[in-house]
Amino acid sequence: MQIARYKTTNRLKAYSLAWKYIDLIYPPQCIICGKIGFRCCPECWEKRNLYSSHICKICGKPTTAGELCAQCKIEKPPLHIIRSLGKYTGVLQTFITALKYERNIGLAELILPDLTRVFNHTPFQTDMVIPVPLSKKRERERGYNQVAVWGRLFAMDIHQDFAPRALQRTYHTLSQVSLSAEKRWENVRGAFSANPEQIRGRNILLLDDVITTGATLYECAQTIYQCGANSVSALTIARSSIKKTLNKIGGSYV
Ligand SMILES: [Zn+2]
Ligand SMILES: [Zn+2]
To answer: Which of 32, 233, 239, 253 could form a disulfide with 81 if both were Cys (CB 3.0 to 4.6 A apart)?
Structure first.
Protein backbone atom coordinates (compact mmCIF):
# COMPACT_ATOMS: atom_id res chain seq x y z
CA MET A 1 0.00 0.00 0.00
CA GLN A 2 2.78 2.35 0.99
CA ILE A 3 4.68 1.57 -2.23
CA ALA A 4 1.52 2.08 -4.35
CA ARG A 5 0.96 5.48 -2.70
CA TYR A 6 4.57 6.46 -3.30
CA LYS A 7 4.25 5.47 -6.98
CA THR A 8 1.03 7.46 -7.58
CA THR A 9 2.47 10.51 -5.80
CA ASN A 10 5.54 10.29 -8.06
CA ARG A 11 3.35 9.92 -11.16
CA LEU A 12 1.46 13.07 -10.21
CA LYS A 13 4.73 14.94 -9.68
CA ALA A 14 6.01 13.75 -13.07
CA TYR A 15 2.76 14.87 -14.72
CA SER A 16 3.06 18.30 -13.13
CA LEU A 17 6.71 18.60 -14.15
CA ALA A 18 5.91 17.61 -17.75
CA TRP A 19 3.39 20.46 -17.99
CA LYS A 20 5.92 22.90 -16.48
CA TYR A 21 8.35 22.04 -19.30
CA ILE A 22 5.62 22.36 -21.96
CA ASP A 23 4.62 25.75 -20.48
CA LEU A 24 8.24 26.92 -20.65
CA ILE A 25 8.37 26.18 -24.37
CA TYR A 26 4.85 27.41 -25.16
CA PRO A 27 3.97 29.92 -22.41
CA PRO A 28 0.25 29.74 -21.65
CA GLN A 29 -2.08 32.69 -21.07
CA CYS A 30 -4.37 33.12 -18.06
CA ILE A 31 -7.86 32.02 -19.12
CA ILE A 32 -9.34 35.03 -17.30
CA CYS A 33 -7.01 38.06 -17.63
CA GLY A 34 -4.67 36.88 -20.38
CA LYS A 35 -1.48 37.28 -18.32
CA ILE A 36 1.36 35.34 -19.99
CA GLY A 37 3.00 32.45 -18.15
CA PHE A 38 -0.06 31.15 -16.28
CA ARG A 39 -2.93 28.85 -17.27
CA CYS A 40 -4.91 30.76 -14.65
CA CYS A 41 -2.93 33.33 -12.65
CA PRO A 42 -3.13 33.20 -8.81
CA GLU A 43 -5.03 36.52 -8.63
CA CYS A 44 -7.77 35.27 -10.98
CA TRP A 45 -7.87 31.74 -9.52
CA GLU A 46 -8.54 33.21 -6.09
CA LYS A 47 -11.79 34.71 -7.39
CA ARG A 48 -13.46 31.33 -8.07
CA ASN A 49 -16.82 31.07 -6.38
CA LEU A 50 -16.52 28.08 -3.97
CA TYR A 51 -19.29 26.92 -1.64
CA SER A 52 -18.88 27.47 2.07
CA SER A 53 -20.38 25.28 4.77
CA HIS A 54 -24.01 26.30 4.12
CA ILE A 55 -24.89 23.36 1.90
CA CYS A 56 -27.36 20.47 2.08
CA LYS A 57 -25.54 17.54 3.66
CA ILE A 58 -27.03 15.11 1.11
CA CYS A 59 -27.16 16.83 -2.29
CA GLY A 60 -24.66 19.65 -1.67
CA LYS A 61 -27.03 22.41 -2.81
CA PRO A 62 -26.55 25.75 -0.98
CA THR A 63 -29.12 26.13 1.80
CA THR A 64 -30.27 29.18 3.72
CA ALA A 65 -31.33 27.27 6.83
CA GLY A 66 -31.01 23.75 8.22
CA GLU A 67 -28.91 20.74 7.27
CA LEU A 68 -31.10 19.57 4.39
CA CYS A 69 -32.47 21.47 1.39
CA ALA A 70 -36.25 21.62 0.83
CA GLN A 71 -36.07 18.91 -1.84
CA CYS A 72 -34.04 16.38 0.20
CA LYS A 73 -36.45 16.83 3.12
CA ILE A 74 -39.23 15.51 0.88
CA GLU A 75 -37.34 12.92 -1.14
CA LYS A 76 -33.71 11.86 -0.94
CA PRO A 77 -31.79 11.61 -4.24
CA PRO A 78 -30.73 8.14 -5.45
CA LEU A 79 -27.11 8.99 -4.66
CA HIS A 80 -25.62 8.62 -1.19
CA ILE A 81 -23.94 12.05 -1.21
CA ILE A 82 -23.46 14.73 -3.91
CA ARG A 83 -20.94 17.55 -3.65
CA SER A 84 -19.89 20.36 -5.99
CA LEU A 85 -16.98 22.71 -5.45
CA GLY A 86 -18.87 25.87 -6.34
CA LYS A 87 -21.27 27.74 -8.53
CA TYR A 88 -21.12 27.44 -12.33
CA THR A 89 -20.14 31.03 -12.86
CA GLY A 90 -17.07 33.25 -13.36
CA VAL A 91 -13.72 31.50 -13.00
CA LEU A 92 -15.13 27.96 -12.57
CA GLN A 93 -17.33 28.33 -15.65
CA THR A 94 -14.42 29.61 -17.77
CA PHE A 95 -12.19 26.83 -16.37
CA ILE A 96 -14.69 24.10 -17.32
CA THR A 97 -15.29 25.58 -20.77
CA ALA A 98 -11.55 25.89 -21.53
CA LEU A 99 -10.93 22.30 -20.46
CA LYS A 100 -13.94 20.94 -22.30
CA TYR A 101 -14.04 22.86 -25.55
CA GLU A 102 -10.64 24.52 -25.98
CA ARG A 103 -8.33 21.54 -25.35
CA ASN A 104 -6.67 23.38 -22.45
CA ILE A 105 -6.05 20.10 -20.60
CA GLY A 106 -2.98 21.49 -18.82
CA LEU A 107 -5.50 23.31 -16.61
CA ALA A 108 -6.67 20.05 -15.04
CA GLU A 109 -4.17 19.86 -12.18
CA LEU A 110 -5.21 23.30 -10.90
CA ILE A 111 -8.49 21.91 -9.59
CA LEU A 112 -6.94 18.99 -7.65
CA PRO A 113 -6.43 20.76 -4.29
CA ASP A 114 -10.09 21.89 -4.24
CA LEU A 115 -11.38 18.42 -5.14
CA THR A 116 -9.20 16.71 -2.56
CA ARG A 117 -10.14 19.20 0.16
CA VAL A 118 -13.88 18.64 -0.43
CA PHE A 119 -13.33 14.89 -0.65
CA ASN A 120 -11.48 14.86 2.68
CA HIS A 121 -14.22 16.89 4.40
CA THR A 122 -17.15 14.80 3.13
CA PRO A 123 -18.20 11.40 4.50
CA PHE A 124 -18.06 9.71 1.09
CA GLN A 125 -17.82 5.90 1.22
CA THR A 126 -15.85 5.22 -1.92
CA ASP A 127 -13.27 2.82 -3.26
CA MET A 128 -13.64 3.39 -7.01
CA VAL A 129 -13.78 6.57 -9.10
CA ILE A 130 -15.69 6.65 -12.41
CA PRO A 131 -16.00 9.68 -14.71
CA VAL A 132 -19.35 10.19 -16.47
CA PRO A 133 -18.61 8.83 -19.95
CA LEU A 134 -19.07 10.55 -23.29
CA SER A 135 -20.51 8.64 -26.22
CA LYS A 136 -17.87 7.06 -28.46
CA LYS A 137 -18.83 9.54 -31.19
CA ARG A 138 -18.36 12.61 -28.95
CA GLU A 139 -15.12 11.31 -27.47
CA ARG A 140 -13.77 10.73 -30.98
CA GLU A 141 -14.76 14.25 -32.06
CA ARG A 142 -13.28 15.92 -28.95
CA GLY A 143 -10.31 13.59 -28.71
CA TYR A 144 -10.69 13.12 -24.95
CA ASN A 145 -13.20 12.96 -22.12
CA GLN A 146 -12.45 16.13 -20.14
CA VAL A 147 -13.82 14.59 -16.92
CA ALA A 148 -11.48 11.62 -17.28
CA VAL A 149 -8.53 14.03 -17.69
CA TRP A 150 -8.92 15.57 -14.21
CA GLY A 151 -10.63 12.45 -12.80
CA ARG A 152 -7.54 10.29 -13.39
CA LEU A 153 -5.33 12.80 -11.56
CA PHE A 154 -7.83 13.14 -8.73
CA ALA A 155 -8.12 9.34 -8.27
CA MET A 156 -4.30 9.22 -8.05
CA ASP A 157 -4.34 12.03 -5.52
CA ILE A 158 -6.82 10.24 -3.23
CA HIS A 159 -5.27 6.78 -3.92
CA GLN A 160 -8.40 5.13 -5.27
CA ASP A 161 -9.08 2.88 -8.25
CA PHE A 162 -9.93 4.76 -11.43
CA ALA A 163 -12.25 2.88 -13.81
CA PRO A 164 -13.04 5.04 -16.86
CA ARG A 165 -14.48 2.12 -18.85
CA ALA A 166 -16.65 0.55 -16.13
CA LEU A 167 -19.54 2.75 -17.26
CA GLN A 168 -20.32 3.37 -20.94
CA ARG A 169 -22.72 5.56 -22.84
CA THR A 170 -24.60 3.09 -25.03
CA TYR A 171 -25.90 5.60 -27.53
CA HIS A 172 -25.15 9.13 -28.60
CA THR A 173 -27.43 11.63 -26.81
CA LEU A 174 -27.99 15.32 -27.47
CA SER A 175 -25.90 17.70 -25.38
CA GLN A 176 -27.81 18.38 -22.15
CA VAL A 177 -26.78 22.07 -22.30
CA SER A 178 -29.37 22.88 -24.97
CA LEU A 179 -32.32 21.06 -23.34
CA SER A 180 -35.13 21.99 -20.97
CA ALA A 181 -35.33 20.28 -17.56
CA GLU A 182 -37.95 17.73 -18.71
CA LYS A 183 -36.09 16.93 -21.92
CA ARG A 184 -32.85 16.33 -19.99
CA TRP A 185 -34.42 13.39 -18.10
CA GLU A 186 -35.80 11.89 -21.33
CA ASN A 187 -32.53 12.46 -23.18
CA VAL A 188 -30.42 10.27 -20.86
CA ARG A 189 -32.98 7.58 -20.03
CA GLY A 190 -31.39 4.17 -20.70
CA ALA A 191 -28.29 5.86 -22.14
CA PHE A 192 -25.72 4.00 -19.99
CA SER A 193 -24.54 0.47 -19.38
CA ALA A 194 -22.05 -0.77 -16.82
CA ASN A 195 -19.77 -3.72 -16.25
CA PRO A 196 -21.13 -5.73 -13.27
CA GLU A 197 -17.80 -7.54 -12.81
CA GLN A 198 -16.04 -4.27 -12.07
CA ILE A 199 -18.87 -2.70 -10.11
CA ARG A 200 -20.46 -5.40 -7.93
CA GLY A 201 -19.99 -4.67 -4.22
CA ARG A 202 -18.00 -1.48 -4.83
CA ASN A 203 -18.59 2.01 -3.47
CA ILE A 204 -18.56 4.28 -6.48
CA LEU A 205 -17.72 7.97 -6.72
CA LEU A 206 -19.03 9.41 -9.99
CA LEU A 207 -17.34 12.52 -11.38
CA ASP A 208 -18.74 15.12 -13.73
CA ASP A 209 -17.88 18.71 -14.55
CA VAL A 210 -21.33 20.25 -13.90
CA ILE A 211 -24.54 19.11 -12.21
CA THR A 212 -27.70 20.90 -13.31
CA THR A 213 -30.91 18.89 -12.93
CA GLY A 214 -29.04 15.77 -11.81
CA ALA A 215 -30.57 13.78 -14.69
CA THR A 216 -27.24 12.43 -16.00
CA LEU A 217 -25.84 11.51 -12.57
CA TYR A 218 -29.13 9.90 -11.42
CA GLU A 219 -29.30 7.81 -14.60
CA CYS A 220 -25.66 6.73 -14.17
CA ALA A 221 -26.33 5.88 -10.52
CA GLN A 222 -29.36 3.79 -11.40
CA THR A 223 -27.35 1.83 -13.99
CA ILE A 224 -24.53 1.28 -11.50
CA TYR A 225 -26.89 0.13 -8.72
CA GLN A 226 -28.48 -2.35 -11.14
CA CYS A 227 -25.01 -3.87 -11.54
CA GLY A 228 -24.77 -4.49 -7.80
CA ALA A 229 -22.83 -1.48 -6.51
CA ASN A 230 -22.88 -1.04 -2.75
CA SER A 231 -23.19 2.77 -2.87
CA VAL A 232 -22.96 5.60 -5.38
CA SER A 233 -21.95 9.20 -4.62
CA ALA A 234 -20.96 12.05 -6.92
CA LEU A 235 -18.54 14.94 -7.02
CA THR A 236 -18.71 17.69 -9.63
CA ILE A 237 -16.63 20.81 -10.17
CA ALA A 238 -19.66 23.10 -10.42
CA ARG A 239 -23.39 23.30 -9.90
CA SER A 240 -25.65 25.16 -12.31
CA SER A 241 -29.33 25.85 -12.56
CA ILE A 242 -31.43 25.52 -15.68
CA LYS A 243 -32.11 29.28 -15.58
CA LYS A 244 -28.40 30.00 -15.62
CA THR A 245 -27.86 27.62 -18.54
CA LEU A 246 -30.67 29.30 -20.47
CA ASN A 247 -29.23 32.76 -19.84
CA LYS A 248 -25.91 31.55 -21.16
CA ILE A 249 -27.40 30.56 -24.49
CA GLY A 250 -29.47 33.70 -24.86
CA GLY A 251 -32.55 32.87 -22.79
CA SER A 252 -34.11 30.39 -25.18
CA TYR A 253 -34.14 26.66 -25.66
CA VAL A 254 -32.01 25.66 -28.62
ZN1 LIG B 1 -5.35 36.13 -14.52
ZN1 LIG C 1 -30.47 18.49 -0.72
So the answer is: 233
